[in-house]
Amino acid sequence: MRLDRMLANMGVGSRKDVRQLIRNGHVTVNGKTKTRHGQKIDPYEDIVTVFGEQVKYQKYVYLMLNKPQGVISATQDGRHTTVVDLLPFEYVHFEPFPVGRLDVDSVGLLLLTNDGKLAHELTSPKKNVEKVYYVEVEGKVTEDDRRQFADGVTLDDGYETKPAKLQILHSGSISKVYVTITEGKFHQVKRMFQSVGKEVIFLQRIKMGPLMLDEALEEGEIRELTEKELEACLSLKSNE
């Protein structure tokens, strides 16, 4: 990889800014000052510094967000705050995107990454990756509802969902349940309850594949995946 490209990719500056830094002698490779921006380096083996500070190369970034209400799962939008708008500055240059989506009024676990292959493994319906939601529903959720979810329900547009798991935690005027699905149709969980005559009033994703929402993560907070979490996610790519 070219030295200037590596530094630009790591957010040191624009390609033009980086070249100026190199020409001015502010960049070293393995302890030696370099003034040729087109020099080839091994970003994983060579030690690169700018103004004496080491710049470590990282191709992908994997971030867990506890998405708050009022924020949309998109990279840009003219009206709403997006999940990308919540990124700390040091992650912006990676250009991560949300894996799957949560509705604007839904909260909970959302993975942001620039690893397109992993995103496909987690979201493709053919992969049958489970997504688990904690849901509060207006109306009494019954065993009959559970059986209908297990068989798959018909949505308002005629689409028949795959079988889903419905675990009833509390049944009353406001019911509390867990719902597990392997798809990600638009407003799917809400529309599934609408199909059995009930309305979702709160929805939080708590699990996606091997990832569990970190309970210590406040709404709107972001952190990198732990080594254990990352290994579990990357194993999906190796198990094709």
**What are the secondary-structure elements, in order, as H or E?**
HHEEEEEEEHEEHEHEEHEEEH
Q: Give me the CATH architecture of the largest domain, please.
A: 2-Layer Sandwich
CATH superfamily name of the largest domain? Pseudouridine synthase I, catalytic domain, N-terminal subdomain
Oligomer: single chain
Shape: elongated
Structure classification: alpha+beta
Chain-wise SSE layout:
Layout: H1 3-9, H2 15-23, E1 27-29, E2 32-33, E3 48-50, E4 53-54, E5 62-67, E6 71-72, E7 81-82, H3 89-92, E8 97-98, E9 107-113, H4 116-123, E10 131-138, H5 143-151, E11 165-170, E12 174-181, H6 188-195, E13 199-208, E14 211-212, E15 222-224, H7 227-238
Parallel strand pairs: 6-7, 9-13
Antiparallel strand pairs: 1-2, 1-3, 3-4, 5-9, 5-15, 8-9, 10-12, 10-13, 11-12, 13-14
Helix pairs in contact: 1-2, 4-7
Describe it:
By secondary structure, the chain is an alpha+beta fold. The chain has 3 domains: 52 residues, Roll (Structural Genomics Hypothetical 15.5 Kd Protein In mrcA-pckA Intergenic Region, Chain A), CATH 3.10.290; 92 residues, Pseudouridine synthase I, catalytic domain, N-terminal subdomain (Alpha-Beta Plaits); 79 residues, Alpha-Beta Plaits (2-Layer Sandwich), CATH 3.30.70.1560. It contains 7 helices and 15 strands. The strands form 3 sheets. Strands 5, 8, 9, 10, 11, 12, 13, 14 and 15 form a 9-stranded mixed β-sheet that branches. β3 and β4 form a beta hairpin. α1 crosses α2 and α4 packs across α7. The protein is elongated, with a radius of gyration of 23 Å. The two termini are 29 Å apart. The mean pLDDT is 94.
